[in-house]
Automatic annotation (TrEMBL):
This is Cochlin. The lineage of its organism: Eukaryota, Metazoa, Chordata, Craniata, Vertebrata. It comes from Vidua chalybeata (Village indigobird). It holds the Pfam family LCCL. One of its GO terms (cellular component) is extracellular region. Residues 141-326, 343-513 form the VWFA domain. It comes from the Eukaryota. Keywords: Disulfide bond, Glycoprotein, Repeat, Secreted, Signal. One of its GO terms (biological process) is sensory perception of sound.
Amino acid sequence: SLASTAITCFTRGLDLRKGTEDVLCPANCPLWQFYVFGDGVYASLSSVCGAAIHSGVITNTGGAVRVQTLPGQESYPAVNANGIQSQVLSRWASSFSVTAGTKKAALEAVGRSVSTARPSTGKRPKKTLDKKAGNKDCKADIAFLIDGSYNIGQRRFNLQKNFVGKVAVMLGIGTEGPHVGVVQASEHPKIEFYLKNFTATKEVLFAIKELGFRGGNSNTGKALKYTAQKFFSLENGARKGIPKIIVVFLDGWPSDDLEEAGIVAREFGVNVFIVSVAKPTTEELGMVQDIGFVDKAVCRNNGFFSYQMPTWFGTTKYVKPLVQKLCSHEQMLCSKTCYNSVNIGFLIDGSSSIGETNFRLVLEFVSNVAKAFEISDIGSKVAAVQFTYNQRIEFSFTDYVTKEKVLSAIRNIQYMSGGTATGDAITFTTRSVFGPVKDGPNKNFLIVLTDGQSYDDVRGPAAAAQKAGITVFSVGVAWAPLDDLKEMASEPRESHTFFTREFTGLEQMVPDIIRGICKDFLDSKQ
């Protein structure tokens, strides 16, 4: 029989490497620390032992579990079972199921690795950590937004500094590990130090120790918005492709509104966590502008991004679970923004009624839309197809992975000149350009540009494109009939249909198209 592997309370499905694996869960895992997504079929982000208890395969005394890897699901439901509340998650790349493992394999595992099945006594083997590099497995650029208001007072402010220091130590800060900075929220926000200032834990601890208490109202909303907009610039040390995180510490309640700041942070691709300490008492609730302030400010209201501590005393046990959250980079759902997580296909009319000069204006419009997005191998992608009666792929989503190359490819598109078969062109693009990326992580958009009546039906092909998960914007110029444009566009049609009499009018549409793509992207994530 297969020997099982002893795992910890925190091992997730995605940490296991085999398609089917026998594992041994330890006893007495704290139920409240489990993250479980789904019911029966669990997202691979879920804790394996948590899923096993949730589904009734084992109890909290631990035991043998067989884990089977499964494909990803469109959605995972939230179900309360056996003392664990699982959470909702939309679209995840892989899943797993759990069944009872065999006793024999379990006994062998216990003989082999008692030390990993339960907390060991005595010395653990030292991890060979390159001190300078830090913890390479933790990918994060973190701003700690600390509470410096009169609510917290000098004494608790110092306890808060101690807690932030402990979190910083456990994160494993280093050149290739997490980087941190601190912003103090009071009447006005103050950036105390940036990501780029220190890359060693010792220096960070010293800087935290030196922080002075400012006092004033707790304008946390103002500070959160300021941090989201100003803190994570490349010149201040933010790194490309690394999740941006703001951990907001709140003693009591904020003096201002957090909702707008939460929206700004999400637009900037920042993951907001809120650590609330000493919740407002019943009498104090009357002073709170919005009782649901935590839910409105966090990245996603799914339980993962909010964290509670009863007081600032005895907080050591809260350090590790918080660090584990901050280091789960695949959980940072807000790192995906409309700018870095979309595929945009342009379908460009090359018919003879347009002419060379106007065709250049069309290409300029395409460039200006493409320019707004963060194009890279892990980011957004752009493709272009030109059509008359025939279709020609100018470049596909995988041809160019930098913005410079995409823009230069757009400039080099040669005008075809010919008839207009828009329906066929949509069918061709759906199959040949979007087909290869349809299971990828990005959301798909098609922008159809035309200046006239199509010789074929556009309604059927556009409906098929939308059914394949592509959001369609139609942009008409000159003689393009409004009915055709509306029939091609996604719902709500008014906001996905654009028209201008003159080709020079295309330029004014650029911001609205970009905004439209971002709105659709955010709506699809809620």
